[in-house]
C-alpha cells in the first residue's frame, strides 16, 4: 500500500469519525429535548393554576370541535362508560402515556423526587409494626399465637419490613395504582409480588369467552383488564394480568 493511499485512508477515517461524533451529539440533544418536553407536560398536568386549567380547556375544545373553549357541552353521558374518563382516558395507551409522565416526574424531576421521598418518609418512616389481635372473645385457644407466627413468617420470607414495604407506596405516587399478588410457594409461605398497571390489559375476547365458559362464569366486561358486570364498572370481580 502506497503512502498516498494510507494518507487517504487516514483522512477518510477522520471524516467518518467526525460524522459519528456529530450523530452521537445530535442523538443526545434530541434525547434531552424530549426529556425537557416531557417534563413540561408533566408540570402542566400536575401543577395547579391558570396554565393547568387552560390546558384542560384546550383539550376539551379540540375533542368536541368547538373553536371557543367556553362553548359547551363539555361532558356527555358516555364519558365514564366501561371505566373510561373521556377525553383523557379512552384506551390503555392513554393510561400508559399518563403513567410514563408520572414515573418521569417522580423519578427524574428534582421536585418530584423530593415530594416522593418526603411522602414515603412521612407515611412509612422506619416501617410499620404488625400486631395480631383477637376480634372475638370465643376464639380458639392458641389461635393468636399461630396467626402471629404466620404473619411474621410471611413478612420475613418476603423481606417486607425495612426493604419492600416502601415499594407499593412509591408505585402509587408515580402510577396512581399498584397490585399486590400472593403466590403459592413450596414452603407453604405465600410470596408477595408487586405488579404495576401495565401488566393488566384487556384480554383477547375469544380467549376470555372460552375461559369464562370453562369456569362457568357469566360474560363479563374486561375493559382495561378489569372484569365487571356489563354496565357496572365500579364493581370489579376479577383482573386479567399478563
Structural description of this entry:
This protein is mainly alpha-helical and 242 residues long. The chain folds into three domains: 1-74, no CATH class; 82-196, no CATH class; 205-239, no CATH class. Helices cover 53% and strands 6% of the residues. The protein is built from eight helices and four strands. Strands 1-2 form a two-stranded antiparallel sheet. A two-stranded antiparallel ribbon has the order 3-4. A hairpin with a 7-residue loop joins β1 and β2 (191-195). α1 packs across α3 and α3 packs across α4 (110-123). It is extended, with a radius of gyration of 27 Å.
Largest sheet: 2 strands, antiparallel
Strand order of the largest sheet: 1-2
**Helical proportion, percent range:** 40-55%
Order of SSEs, N→C?
Answer: HHHHHHHEEHEE
Provide the number of structural domains. Answer: 3
If you average the pLDDT, what whole number results? Answer: 79
Strand coverage percent? 5-15%
* Cα distance spanning the termini: 60 Å
Q: Would you count the extended β strands for me?
A: 4
What structural category characterises the helix and strand content?
mainly alpha
> Helix count?
8
Poorly predicted runs of 5 or more residues: 45-55
The shape, in one word, is extended
Rg to the nearest angstrom? 27 Å
Which features characterize this protein?
about 240 residues; mainly alpha; 3 domains; two-stranded antiparallel ribbon
Give me a quick take on this structure:
With 242 residues, this protein is mostly helical. The chain has helices at residues 3-46, 50-64, 92-107, 110-123, 143-157, 160-164, 167-175, 205-215, and strands at residues 179-183, 191-195, 226-227, 238-239.
